[in-house]
Specification:
Blueprint lengths: L2 H13 L30 E12 L1 E3 L5 E3 L7 E2 L15 H11 L4 E3 L6 E4 L2 E20 L4 E21 L13 H8 L1 H7 L7 E6 L2 E11 L7 E12 L22 E12 L3 E12 L2 E6 L14 E7 L3 E14 L2 E12 L3 E4 L7 H4 L8 E13 L7 E16 L1 E2 L3 E10 L4
Antiparallel strand pairs: 1-7, 1-22, 2-3, 2-21, 4-7, 5-6, 7-8, 8-9, 8-10, 10-11, 11-12, 12-13, 13-16, 14-15, 15-18, 16-17, 17-19, 19-20, 20-22
Helix pairs in contact: 2-3
Amino acid sequence: MNQYAKHLLILIACIASSQLWAIDNAHFYRATNLFFEPRLERDYLTSFDLFLQSGSTRDARNRDHDTVPLFDIYGTSDMHELAVGVPCKDLSNPLDLIIQQLSLLPSRCVTSNDACKDISKFANYSIGGKFSVMESFISLAQNIKRGFFFHFFFPIRRLKVSDVCFCDISPTDNTCPNINTPIWQAFKNNFDDILARYCLSRECYSLTNIGDVSLDIGWTHSFQKTEVLDFVDTTFKFGIIIPSGEERCEDRIFSIPFGYNGHFGATLSGDLAFGAFDWLTLGAHFDAMVFGNKTKEIRLKTGQAQSGMIKLAKGCSKVERGSQWEVGGYLKLDHFVRGLSFIVGYSFVSKNKDIVTPEDCEKFDLGIANTDQALFGYKMHTVNFFVEYDFSQENKIVGPRIAGYYNWVVGGERIFTTNVGGANFGVEFAWDL
């Protein structure tokens, strides 16, 4: 596909975006979207949704749930340990000599007696920056008969990293080594050249591409023969995730994949809702994703004490991506003022640890490689607010609706705290009238 056609496709998709939350939904870099209610059980019903959302942040949560600068998500970036275990260093090269000499200096940190946390570490960077995301989705669901339906999901994303700032948090006292140690100053003066030697870039970027396309089949049922409740609705879905999204660029330090980083996936989800008083709905959701393994060239941790996002060594490895699951619930005031509805929801997402197996076991230690915080998955707590107005009328084939919403990250670990807001236009086609 040529560049013009690709940009045209992206433009169209950004204009026509959707509101399906359960597939290609949960990512560490932004708040989790509200999941769908159980699907309406009606033969041949067609649902089409257009959706656009955006958000930005300068903060992250680390493994201790603390709020930290954006790219300290896996800890501060330890340059003191950068050269440890890196294969094929050439000490006749002045750049390799600098990182080797730096690693031979004693380590040192200054801690706060009150907070019992490190406040400065020799030869460490705290990396700040700004992350922005704009997303659009196309969602098309088609009922067949007896509650069965198909669903297609197509995401588009623009990911932007800007205002990156490397802050030297080395001790500033008179004890050596400190911020003024000559070899550390030499490292900082040659930092970009050192990165370039190992094919790494710390440049900012703004990229737009598709995410992972999803297809699934589901079954839904509405039980209304009850004297206490208005209804009990259930929906179950099974789907596949096609790795159409661009993968993380291993040569760009702050690169983020557009989907699940090239892994095929399978999903299973269930939704349950109870209605009462003709205006109140309580609902719950669960979904799980499992992924296939993939062998590819990735950056690998080579020293036990290394931390942060910067790793010099790169090797071919089998990556076993950890499974991911989500649970949540919501309360809905359904058509409490004509077609106006309001939803408040909560979701918890947990992704399990990835396992990497380097092909060259002589160059890379399996145990050390798998201590990388970037492999440890994440957890996220999100509160969702959703307002919708439904223009549907009885005995009308077309039923349009519009909505606005806000997703608020309230906690988690190893995540960007990117709150997002957006709008939605949806339409139902009741072909059985």
